């Protein structure tokens, strides 16, 4: 599976890195123009861009619904994922403010590399992240196999249960299967989120703070629930949630059935104030919207 390799530095100060996203600046800023796909990588004045780590989704430390105020998922695990990301990359002495912005750290930047094939619709580079010495020259094409994937941040976050698997069609099946194997091991050991996950067993929305303080669920489901509940302005009824999911028109493929599907309502059950997904995250492959 050929990926474009870009050498550069990771940055944390002044940003809000979480468990699946961090800022990266290439040693040669023009390398961003080598990234394939229809959407160019969106970079700031210094040449740095936000990464979206491929194949993973960690609990939200800060999420703003379309029609509401900023929210988060249970912070102990959400912050643990964010802290682990920075620690794995090599940042130390990290301090954050109440808005989750990194206000201080011992390093202005740490060296590393990314492997990428495209950017998402928001201009975030979809990347596999590595630390230390790169396996090839910047700007070259590198074959990413399971052995190389096991050395990356993406695999690491899944292996210790601090991220959920969330797959899109651009991820090659062999790499997806390798990530799913790491997830299975983490689930068996009840690591991180898997000690308390209720995505498929049933998330009970009992109070206005259930989503933020109590329920550990797949972040994609959390975001849809947060968007829906904010529209209700305090009304916790989930009666309209299936219709809301249908209108969102998430497109995905169910691996176990071989069916392409539109709308998370097809795999989400609502019973009173309880929501559950009927398929595990590793069984789903999403289309980019």
Task: Choose one word for the global shape.
Answer: globular
Name of the level-1 CATH class of the largest domain: Mainly Beta
Mean pLDDT: 96
Low-pLDDT segments, ≥5 res: none
How does this model look, in words?
A hairpin with a 5-residue loop joins strand 5 and strand 6. The two termini are 23 Å apart. It is built from seven helices and 17 strands. The chain has two domains: 2-143, OB fold (Dihydrolipoamide Acetyltransferase, E2P) (Beta Barrel); 197-286, no CATH class. It has helices at residues 75-89, 146-149, 153-159, 173-188, 210-214, 219-231, 241-248, and strands at 2-11, 23-26, 49-53, 56-57, 95-96, 102-104, 109-119, 125-131, 141-143, 164-165, 167-168, 203-204, 251-254, 259-262, 268-271, 274-277, 284-286. With 289 residues, the protein is α+β, with helices and mostly antiparallel strands. It has a five-stranded mixed β-barrel with strand order 1-2-3-8-7. It is globular and about 55 Å long. It is 24% helix and 25% strand. Helix 3 runs parallel beside helix 4 (173-188).
């Amino acid at each position: 599976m050929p990926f474009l390799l870009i050498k550069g530095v990771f940055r944390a100060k002044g940003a809000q890195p979480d468990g699946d996203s961090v800022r990266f600046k290439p040693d040669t800023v023009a390398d961003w123009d080598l990234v394939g796909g229809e959407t160019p990588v969106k970079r700031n004045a210094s040449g740095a861009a936000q990464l979206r780590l491929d194949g993973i989704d960690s609990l939200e430390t800060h999420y703003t619904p379309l029609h509401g105020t900023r929210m988060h998922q249970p912070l102990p695990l959400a912050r643990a994922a964010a802290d682990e990301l920075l620690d794995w990359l090599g940042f130390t002495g990290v301090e954050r403010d109440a808005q989750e912005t990194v206000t201080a750290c011992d390093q202005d930047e740490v060296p590393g590399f990314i492997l990428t094939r495209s950017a998402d619709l928001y201009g975030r580079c979809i990347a596999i992240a590595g630390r230390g010495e790169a396996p090839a020259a910047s700007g070259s094409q590198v074959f990413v196999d399971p052995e190389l994937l096991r050395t990356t941040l993406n695999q690491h976050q899944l292996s210790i249960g601090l991220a959920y698997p969330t797959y899109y069609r651009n991820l090659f099946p062999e790499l997806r299967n390798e990530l799913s194997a790491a997830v299975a091991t983490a689930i068996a050991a009840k690591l991180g989120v898997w000690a308390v996950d209720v995505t498929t067993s049933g998330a009970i929305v009992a109070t206005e703070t259930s989503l933020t303080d109590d329920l550990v669920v797949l972040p994609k489901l959390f975001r849809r629930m947060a968007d829906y509940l904010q529209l209700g302005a305090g009304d916790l009824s989930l009666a309209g949630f299936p219709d809301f999911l249908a209108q969102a028109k998430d497109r995905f493929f169910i691996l176990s059935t071989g069916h392409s599907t539109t709308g998370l309502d097809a795999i989400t059950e609502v019973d009173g104030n309880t929501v559950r997904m009927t398929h595990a995250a590793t069984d789903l492959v999403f289309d980019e919207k």
